[in-house]
Amino acid sequence: QVQLVESGGGLVQPGGSLRLSCVASGYNFRAYGMGWYRQAPGKQRDLVASITSGGTTSYANSVKGRFTISRDNAKNTVYLQMNSLKPDDTAVYYCNVLGVWGQGTQVTVSS
Predict the structure, then answer these.
(1) Residue 79: beta bridge partners?
(2) Distance CA 10, CA 90 (A)
(3) What are the pLDDT digits (tens) for 48-96?
């Protein structure tokens, strides 16, 4: 079955950087795109960035120019590089493919 495992979250000061990883298994990784989502307390889960099987990327307006999504097909992994982090980026970050969610990784941006 499809499994997704996120990692790389943590506590970072405003202006700092983090790189999230999502390791996938149980399906043909190269054939599908993937999305990174986030959910802040009391808010809905929103799409942050996505990447197609061919490597085409798209971003929410709130993260354009700061976040970069990428994939390594040899490692079955999708990354989310997050720079210039703001307190509003605080949330649990999830990856999703084929309707399956990972367990999430907490990102907290605070001084």
Answers:
(1) 21, 70
(2) 10
(3) 999 999 999 999 999 999 999 999 999 999 999 999 999 999 999 999 9
Q: What is the Rg, in whole angstroms, of the alpha carbon atoms belonging to the chain?
A: 13
Going by C-beta distance under 8 Å and a sequence separation of 6 or more, which residues neighbour residue 108? 9, 10, 11, 12, 90
What is the residue whose two structure tokens read 């190269």? 30
Cα distance between residue 65 and residue 78, in whole Å? 18
- The count of residues in the chain is 111
According to DSSP, residue 46 is labeled E
Q: Where are the beta strands (DSSP E) in 40-99?
A: 46-51, 57-59, 67-72, 77-82, 91-97
